[in-house]
Protein backbone atom coordinates (compact mmCIF):
# COMPACT_ATOMS: atom_id res chain seq x y z
CA UNK A 1 0.00 0.00 0.00
CA UNK A 2 2.62 2.55 1.05
CA UNK A 3 4.91 1.65 -1.86
CA UNK A 4 2.14 2.31 -4.40
CA UNK A 5 1.44 5.71 -2.82
CA UNK A 6 5.14 6.60 -2.97
CA UNK A 7 5.28 5.43 -6.58
CA UNK A 8 2.33 7.65 -7.52
CA UNK A 9 3.92 10.61 -5.74
CA UNK A 10 7.22 10.05 -7.56
CA UNK A 11 5.45 9.85 -10.92
CA UNK A 12 3.56 13.11 -10.32
CA UNK A 13 6.71 14.87 -9.09
CA UNK A 14 8.77 13.72 -12.07
CA UNK A 15 5.96 14.77 -14.42
CA UNK A 16 6.01 18.32 -13.01
CA UNK A 17 9.81 18.56 -12.66
CA UNK A 18 10.95 17.18 -16.01
CA UNK A 19 9.41 20.00 -18.13
CA UNK A 20 11.13 22.57 -15.92
CA UNK A 21 14.47 20.76 -16.29
CA UNK A 22 14.13 20.57 -20.07
CA UNK A 23 13.13 24.24 -20.23
CA UNK A 24 16.13 25.39 -18.21
CA UNK A 25 18.38 23.11 -20.26
CA UNK A 26 17.04 24.65 -23.49
CA UNK A 27 17.62 28.16 -22.15
CA UNK A 28 21.15 27.21 -21.04
CA UNK A 29 22.07 25.72 -24.41
CA UNK A 30 20.69 28.76 -26.26
CA UNK A 31 22.60 31.08 -23.93
CA UNK A 32 25.80 29.08 -24.50
CA UNK A 33 25.28 29.21 -28.28
CA UNK A 34 24.88 32.99 -28.17
CA UNK A 35 27.99 33.33 -25.99
CA UNK A 36 30.04 31.20 -28.40
CA UNK A 37 28.84 33.07 -31.49
CA UNK A 38 30.24 36.36 -30.12
From the N-terminal CA to the C-terminal CA, the straight-line distance is: 56 Å
**Number of DSSP helical runs:** 1
- Give the overall shape: rod-shaped
Biggest sheet descriptor: none
The low-pLDDT segments are none
Beta-strand proportion: under 5%
Would you count the extended β strands for me? 0
Oligomer: single chain
The helix/strand class is: mainly alpha
Radius of gyration over C-alpha positions, nearest whole angstrom: 17 Å
Overall residue-averaged pLDDT value = 85
Helix content: over 70%
Elements, N to C (H/E): H
Question: Could you explain the architecture of this structure?
Answer:
With 38 residues, the chain is mainly α. It has one helix and no strands. The longest helix has 36 residues, at 2-37.
Question: What is the compact description of this entry?
Answer:
The chain is built from one helix and no strands. By secondary structure, it is mainly alpha-helical.
Characteristic key phrases:
single chain; mainly alpha; 38 residues; 95% helix
Tell me the layout of helices and strands.
Layout: H1 2-37
